[in-house]
Write a structure and sequence with these properties.
Two copies of one chain form a homodimer. By secondary structure, chain A is mostly helical. Helices cover 50% and strands 4% of the residues of chain A. The interface between A and B is large, with 43 and 43 residues. The complex binds iron/sulfur cluster (2 copies). The first copy, chain A, binds a DNA duplex through helix 3.
Chain lengths: 144, 144
DNA sequence: TTAATATCGGATAAAATTATCCGAAATATA
DNA sequence: TATATTTCGGATAATTTTATCCGATATTAA
């Protein structure tokens, strides 16, 4: 469903969100350790997310990553997914066919449309604050 | 959603199904040409599908691939997907988290469960005959 | 101003996926 | 039986994805 890169991205974002609730900035090392991901690869992902203005970064001592507390309830999981995996998950024929006849779609078409709408809606209506709060209950879920 | 390999596999299977309706056996070349896929790579996929008893193959002149006409309404798209991509699409946390707390799931959990059930159900209730018949209306869909 | 810290950004490398090549094996038919 | 045809199966190659390395840049604090 989502690429490995995207899953790291989601987990990292959720971890940062958790800390940002309490105005704590976290370093690359802390993040990678918390979500059990390769440090340097995680750095690339965080860089991308920072460029997309989903997280903000700061160099130097006491630096690290954070998310503006005010934005926590405004940033959705869908934004993270789109930033990393693009929106190919939501476009085109799920079966990989071409130029399907809209007037005589295959028996699965309507179901696929509905499934993707649900997925899109689920991701779009889940903000970082809401998800992070619920994950507080069991922090270990981010780690293997 | 599905790997490239899996999409080739689905398209190839549907093309064979279309021909098998009329007891026509098709060759590797015909298939690859019809679905616009790399010949040798398609051969590997067909080999796998044959091993999984989804299609049957025959060597030599007049050889090729076919599907027992009687089985056309019994073979589902889900069987094809599982043969090629396995069932990772249906298992584990969609976000890639670990050991989620079943009693206090994240806000997306129930939605993900529902989405995957729908997907699974859609694929499992679509048989080759039904889909192939509908695709007869616009054969070009298999090709770019 | 200097030194220490932490992300940035470009170059590589490893691993997984996708794609190609070619001889072997099986089959039809002449 | 001999030959042409077609899939099988193993080795190899190209591409994409995932992962690592390291010097440059920015920031903090002494
Ligand atoms: S009708 Fe079926 S094959 Fe065509 S785009 Fe929709 S899902 Fe794909
Ligand atoms: S609760 Fe959320 S995070 Fe946990 S398994 Fe379900 S979807 Fe994944």
């Amino acid at each position: 469903m989502f690429s490995k890169t995207c899953k790291y991205g989601i987990k990292a974002t959720l971890f940062i969100a958790q800390k940002s609730q309490f105005d704590e900035r976290v370093s690359l090392k802390e993040i990678a350790s918390a979500i059990d991901s390769p440090v340097a690869f995680t750095a690339k992902i965080l860089q991308l997310l920072a460029k997309e203005n989903i997280i903000s970064s700061r160099k130097g001592p006491k630096g690290g990553f954070e998310i503006d507390k005010v934005l926590l309830p405004k940033i959705t999981i869908k934004q993270v997914v789109k930033a990393i995996d693009g929106d190919s998950l939501f476009n085109g024929c799920a079966l990989g066919l071409y130029e399907c006849n809209e007037k005589a779609p295959c028996p699965m078409h309507d179901n696929f449309v509905s499934i993707r709408e649900q997925l899109s809606e689920t991701l779009a209506s889940s903000n970082l604050l809401e998800v992070a709060i619920n994950l507080n209950l069991g922090l270990t879920v981010l780690k293997r």
